[in-house]
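[agent] plan:
  1. take the single chain provided in the ticket
  2. run structure prediction with default settings
  3. attach structure tokens to the ticket
  4. add a short note for the reviewer (M.T.)
[agent] executing step 1
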Amino acid sequence: MGVIKINVDGGAVGAPGLLTGGRVFHYNFGVFRGYFAFTHGTSFAFEAELATTLHAICLAHHKGWKNIWLECDSNYVVQILRSENPIVRWRLLAKWHNVRQLL
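[agent] step 2 finished; step 3 output follows
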């Protein structure tokens, strides 16, 4: 099957504003596998990027895609995924714990 590449982007309309996010899934050799977009309450752009990333990893795991390559705009999101004790807002903390179990 190869590596599933996930391109993630999140943003907020305003500061704080409506959180939006989207992702595209495809194999590392370019075959398209799917996409989706969503809104997720109100906050800042960084939280949108994190929420979108966490959601994308959960969805990939649900579809059985275990070998993933994640691309996002935020180095801080990557640091949070690698951290043992990150500072994450409570509404994303449970999802962060779930994703850490999947990685």
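[agent] step 4 note for reviewer: The helical segments are 45-62, 75-82, 90-102.
[agent] ticket updated
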